[in-house]
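Thread: quick sanity check before group meeting

JM: Hey all, I'm pulling together slides for Thursday and realized we never actually wrote out the predicted structure for the chain we discussed last week. Dropping the sequence here so it's in one place. If anyone has concerns about the input, flag it before I start.
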Amino acid sequence: MTTLQLAGLREAVADPAQVKTRPIDLHANAHDASHFLLIPQAVVTAGNADEVGRLLRASAAQGVPLTFRSGGTSLSGQAVSDGVLVDVRRNFRNVEVLDGGARVRVQPGVTVRALNARLAPYGRKFGPDPASESACTVGGVVANNSSGMNCGTVDNAYRTLESVTVVLPSGTVIDTGAPDADEKLRALEPELHAGLADLAGRVRGNSDSVGRIRQQFAMKNTMGYGLNSLLDFDSPAEMMAHLIVGSEGTLGFVAEAVFRTIPRLTHAATGLLVFPDLQAANEALPALVESGAATVELMDALSLKVGQTLKGTPAVVQDLTVRDHAALLVEYSAELAEGLGALRQRGERMLTHLGLAAPAQFTGDASARARLWHLRKGLYASVAGARPQGTTALLEDIVVPVPALGRTCRELVGLFDKYSYANSVIFGHAKDGNVHFMLTDGFTTQQELDRYSSFTEDMVDLVLGEGGSLKAEHGTGRVMAPYVRRQYGDELYGVMRRIKQLFDPSGMLNPGVLMDDDPQAHLRHIKTAPPVAEEVDRCVSCGYCEPVCPSKDLTLTPRQRIVTLRAIEQARLDGDERLARQLEKDYDYESVQTCAVDGMCQTACPVEINTGLLVKRIRRSEAGAVENGVWNAAAKHWGGVTRGASLALTVVNKLPAAAVVPPNKAARAVLGTDTVPLYSAELPGGGSARKRPTPDGAPDAVYFPACVGTMFGPAGSDSGGAGEGAAGGAAGSGVQYSFEQLCQRAGVTLLVPDGIDGLCCGTPWSSKGMVAGQATMREKTLAALRQATRDGELPIVCDASSCTEGLRQAVESDEPMPGQRELRIVDAVDFAAQHILPKLPDHQKLESLALHPTCSSTRMGINNSLNAVAQAVAERVEVPDNWGCCAFAGDRGMLHPELTASATAKQGREVAEMGASAHASCNRTCELGMTRATGKDYRHVLELLEEMTRS
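JM (edit): ok, ran it. Output follows.
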């Protein structure tokens, strides 16, 4: 392997720091969602297309391989490299909506979900609909010609692409949408231009080649290069644009692309049809497709058995005694309700003629449809998450002509039995003849590799024997690169080799991907997953967690935290203590200190991993006896601690910054940035005590005001002084006053527990790993709540979403005594939506409100209530498209302000462009984080509601 000279790379980018070579950078970025692992020599964050061009030239000059990485959700090994790995996720995120949404110009780092969010107001969407849409990016969609459940071969990347701006390996940049694109290509890349024209003539002059290409690309097909480009287009520039689609980063870099969009169908009806066996399900496909079904998803018998273990599985599956059954999840969709009604009637008329094994119906109910889709989408998570420790999950996909699908699936089941691959479910897009299956094994011993090799040979024979393709939508990658020649034959394989030579004469772009003449290539570089922690061992490195992680643009993502921990363990197993120490040295800041432990990763993870729990465990293990003792003492005297913090903030708020900042920074330098918070000017003065007198009447609920209201005063006030509120009245009273006023107007009587000023939800101790203090506070708080609620008779209402979640977690450890009820924790926003909003009189509203849901409101599922309250405040409520966790995370935003700055940068700019009348959230520290990010006062939404409904 050629040794990399870093100087050339550093000269190619604006800032040499964009080139990273620390072991933690290399190992954290080495992993994608595939089962392959190569460790790069350098990771470079490219800033723009010009830098990419210079990097390509620098790499070619040294003869060092270069690979592009964006979302890292590819499953076939096309985004790993032992050369230069170029990150194009961070800086290529621009979207320009064109022609009222009919077209869109987009850069490669934009996720499909983010793109569809931009298109939604226009009633349009992106054509490809991969299951990984929350994390996969447009760059990957183009590189793999991704499709999905609905788009088939009609609305995939190839068919909806209008033009691309491509950076070729030579550094030449061509915009194929420009009027002179073909002339420019001829002038700047004459050999490539002439070569593509020659190849088109060669293919078109060979009837066998034409026939094979048409047959292969009538199906979903991502094996090899898209040779249909040579038949479908006449100009070399257009051929080039469409050859780039599905080229898996081996021909050039797509700096941006223009696509035609498709209508966003908002009305849908879904049904699960259970058949006696695979053959019966297969025979029903033509009629279902003819009826206008948008989606037809197959699940085999083992899938149904696995589905019966999932929570919330519909009764039609739960009550089934599964033998040889198979099921089709069928969905009809339309722009208008009338159109859906007609489709639904057509589908329901067919049901009696399909020979179903169980009654079926189509439903438009959102919750019922969600349960059906949870069954289908939960299969991968269930099987992958339950795999034995230390094993790897391989998710494969194939396609065959639809009439052969049932027979192929039965033969696959036979191969699973022959090679003893247990729990290999088959599911997929039956309408397209495209199914996925999973293999779980160690893939480390020679016996395991031999078994996998023999299985693959039999599977290849099976699929090609049916006239299918070995890759339908996951890309050829490394896993099927040795089989491209077998699928296409020598002539067309020769055409593909010539294409690669024309685009990339030095062969430095992603070598080993898409074509490889080594018949054993797919058996090399298979990654291992040594057990490291029970919280994360089931991670499959899919990367779904990364877009929602607040530290993704600063340090590590959840996936990277996990794989780096595995790299440390693997280094120890390999006896490489030096590497283990190097990784550990940087792991503390990159992973532990800058993790917001917000749990947002769990909301996106298909196997429900909360990486924050891992970080909390690490913090617990590293917390010393002295620190634990201090925090335990704080738990015992929390009222004094919060009053002290309030007083300190009030005093500091009155001092000039010059008197505060220098000693504060000095203390951080001596005691550590993870110990001493950094003062910043937007911090308010201290708040007030939470204690309230016992009400005269019988209480309807127990009110647990959060202690952050004591430490941090409300927005709109300086050290307790009143500012002006949204309705022109007094502001600065805080959420406790506002919630109490709202409840009084609604006739709701509240009881604040005795000793409230010394109570807390326990989150500060939990997030820092202070076990003794957490136990002390939990015992105090639960005892007080037991007494106040009359052993659980009354609900407990908390006014800060993170504290509500913290109380719920504390209550999980509370085992009621015989006769006691479970304690019920309700967030004040949820309570207001249910019990206060219906009783409020008509009132004026603000023109607009910028709303910041929190990670806790998202995790608890109360954002609908949050939005309902916000709608009662303003005529127009806007949540930024770039919304995400602010990462203030209690005190994390004061200890590491760079974390909050990174997490809020994009949404902060978006909020500034909104020009909203007011700004709101539902958690005081999140309000502080967003105030810092935007320069606008964020307040609790209930404060605004109280002001707008004053009589």
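AS: nice. The CA atoms of residues 542 and 815 lie 36 Å apart. The first strand starts at residue 19 and ends at 20.
JM: adding both to the slides.
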